[in-house]
Amino acid sequence: MTVSRQTLRVPHLGGTTVGFRSSGSVLDPAKPTLVLVIPFTTTVDYYAPEFENSALTSKLNLIAIEPLGHGATRTDSETFTYWDSALVNVQLLEVLGVDRVIAGGTSQGGWIAVQMALLAPQKVQGLVLIGTSMDSESPQSRELGCWDGPAATSGFVKLGADMTTPQHDFEPGQGYYDFLVEIGYGKDLGASLRSFWEETIKTTYRGEEGKRRICMAAINLASRDGLYARLPYVKCPVVWLHGTSDVVFSLANAQEGIKHFVNSPEARLVPFDKGVHFLSFTHPKEVHENILEFTARWSRQGRLGFFPEVPVAPTHPRIPRISTITTSLFACMMKTYAVNNTPSLTHNTANVVASPSPSNPEGHAHKRRRVALACGTCRSRKSRCDGARPKCSLCRELGQECVYQQVGSSPNLTVGKEYVAQLEHRIEQIEEFIRPLREGRAEITPVKSFPLPEENDLYRHHTSTAAGDPSSITGNFSSHQGSHNTNEIGEADTSEDSIDGMAAISFQYEQDAGFFGPSSNIAFMRHISKAISQATYRNPSLLSVPSNDNKHGNEMTNASQPHAHTERIRNKQNPREVNIYALPSEEQSWDLIEQYFSKTGQLLPFIHEQSVRETYFQMKRNDSTKVRRTWLGLLNIIFAIALSLCTDSDMPAQQRIDESDVFYQRANALCDRESRRNASLEMVQYLLVLGQYLQGTQKSVQAWTTHGLAITAAFQLGIHSPEANKAFPALECEIRKRTWFGCVLLDRTLSMTFGRPCIIPQSYIRLELPSVEMQVLGRTPQPETCTHRDGCFFTAAIQLYVVMYNIIDTCYDQNLGLSTSETSYDIVSKVLEGDRQLDEWRHGLVPSLGLHVLQKPLTTRDMDLMKVDSVIFQRFNIVLSLRFHNLRILLHRKFLEKFLDMGGMAGSEAKVPQQVGVNSVHNCVESAIVIISTVHTVATTTGWHRGVLGAWNYSLYYTFNAGLVIFGALLVSSRESPKNPALWEPVERSRPYLDLAVDALRRLDSGNHVIERCVEYLSQIALALAALDSNPTSGNSIPITTLTSNNTSAYPDTIVPSSSHMVPFNTSHHHQQFSLSQSPVSVDLGEFMIDSDFDFLGKVFFDLSHSSNSNNNINNINGSDSRASAVNQPSGLYRG
User: Fold this and answer.
1) pLDDT in tens, 933-973
2) Which of 368, 722, 860, 1134 is buried most, with the most CB atoms less than 10 Å from its CB?
3) In which residue ranges is the amino acid composition biased (Polar residues) (predicted)?
4) How would you class 904 by CB atoms within 10 Å of its CB: exposed for 0-12, middle for 13-18, buried for 19 or more?
5) CA distance 659 to 488
6) pTM of the model
């Protein structure tokens, strides 16, 4: 039997009559109780579908409550707030004798339900939020797509302030009736339901008294305070149901709100496609199913207790048990206030007319349940114990220890079947929980019991006695410590195996193809391979494999690696598990934080250093019990990149990379799923740092996907919008701005290296440049405003990448891979415009920021002049110089590619473009020399001098690219220089720098497999020049001069060291490690080259070297010079 609306008197605000509705005359103690708070200006009739749903009422006790200013609820106080309504609701539950409930509500009802959980955490054991918001009516909520609440309610707010003339004939009006039902139910609402609410609202708010109540309700809605800062204090499970078509509170706002329930055991957002604000209208079945699933699951887990049998409305006051409100005050006030309306229900349990229920099918009156065992406290006090576990109600109220102790046996002691069934069910749950641990992890060693353990050895396989679902952890790790005493396990990041997700199909190994457009090194290698085939006429079919046998087209490159696939399958079968909550020792943590912000953090300064340090300090002070999951992931990826790029330590490169991978695995387990579900500024920063890290690992191709996630989240947060950022404090606005520019810089870098279109068009960049006076880095705040060099560097880099975007856009057609027939004259105009922009940047902006760009090779004398206190400043200059010259190469490379492809300019073209083309090649070589000499000079130093170089992966890219350019230029010079030797002399003088590039990379990070692989192929390129020379061709092809034959006296020894200063290259050692025909090293070098390109070179160089071997053997027999023999010596490296 569903009871219609009733009222009860509670003491708050000098006495309040509360309107409510119950699903039965007596609350069934065998069922959980769900309290539902109504939305704005409705009544308990809003929840009529829930009360009429037998599936709900058979499993739950339902109570709908009308807050202050709504329905039949009345108070003598003229003003009130949502907090008052929440307190009134709690008092109503006390009067009804309900100990524990699930609180929920729609719109404002969800807000009030959360306030109830904050006021009475022992009473509210779960939250069901529907179409609500936890934010105030803030600008941020409107940016996320919410309505303008203050504007919508401004009419009633202003009306409430007019108290001069009473309006006894007041009615809200037809405009308001239509507004409410359309924003709540949508415009497809039927006439009968629309008419019902028009009449209901008109009746509820008629006259002066109705005007005052609706105006105060509007004031509550428009001026409510935000709950974000309080949500961490909610410790009960939460389910949030929200429609995608909610015009009041957007889904994006709900996604932001759910993230703040960081200490709830469950905080889950369930979106409903095309669901409106009053969600149960469009999705009644789904809403009810989610409510039943949520309450049933948490009831089984013991979160929601059983309630004593009580009538719904007592006829005389009783002293309730109150956990949050002061008991004595409430008891005194309850003696004063009698029940306003005497309901038809009686309080005397002997006379209660019970309604039928699943536990009482005949409708007979319940008898008091006999408790099998009372606790010790109740026994000593001779009080009635309700037998609740782990604490009875009385001990919980008094704050006493509650101990159940069996004192002997009694033949009269009885235990109810229900209690035994509960125990059996709990045992089944425990057995089900420990079964996978017993079966699959018998060999696992327990870890430290506290949630974020420190580790003495950074690289080890962390294990635990239990594995949890990472998605269920929200950041309050104290629950782990108190319950299972374990740490969550995350599986190491491995590639997919060959079985489909349903285990229905076993796919055979399929080759993958990736697009690497015109600006990539891979595309440039195709031009080089074409030039090699033109320079040697012995076996053209072998030398034209990339251009003629590419089933994906010239821009599509086969990225498959069968040997690597086998290795991934092997790793998948035995995955390494990572304890995602483990942290290094405090000393190591502080050291890695310092490493990051003194190096990488300086070059991309979008993370506030003081905030990171303060958060880490607070985390350690709180014994690692409270920390955001995304922040912990950000911290781990900071540790990973700091360790990975720390080349100045004594740790071997492979060990350093392995240990940094542990931090990466932890960060990935913490944030990988979150990055696809939630968006926050912290998450964008995490993704950007992750993208940087991935570029220096064997997972470099993943950087493209990670970058896409970062940009998507950035757009969702609106950090690209000047208007959106205005709503934030100055520092936060600056951090948002810098994070956006971090997205832009990474976008331009990946576009250039992968040869793919930029994701962010230049027209989308409307923010002002970063402030050079805002402090973002540094341990402590500086009292005085000054110019910060990290801001100057960041500004210079941003402006340089504007030029990069223009070059990619004009010279490389935005890397779209379109077939164009541009002439040399077209290229000339584009290159000249790019040169103008580069010169404007170099001579105008950079000096104004106190920085400079190197125009000549860096020497050891330059290094000696540097001072230790200027390391960061010098690093800024060197990194800007490398970026500038690499971009200059990219600009002028167009003519070099033209020479490589066409064998020189067509005869019909004028001599001016020919001269301009040669000058462009000179510019390429000149910048390549600056890059190689700079990296080599720094790499050969020791101590703090090595710190002036940026990250090794970028230095590797610039140097490798410069080496390829010099090789390509020398190929062209070998053909063109006999026609005009003076014109090509600058190119011929660059020959020693090819060997210098190899030596620089060897010294960059010894033992790094990624670098060793590039060293291997640059070495083969150097040998290829000699091999081509040892195979003279017919026709007009000119033999290529060997490396050693060039006179290097034009270069000072400080720039081009003699061979005795070079690091020796152990060919036999590298022969075991690299095999060109098989490419056994599983390395993704998306921004350098990938295996198929390296394999092609292997075939080319093997053929050249094999032929050279034959010719040199003849030469040796005939007593030819020793140079040919020296070239022949490493040729065995390229066999098979």
Assistant:
1) 999 998 888 878 788 887 787 888 888 889 989 988 888 88
2) 1134
3) 471-488, 1119-1136
4) middle
5) 19
6) 0.53
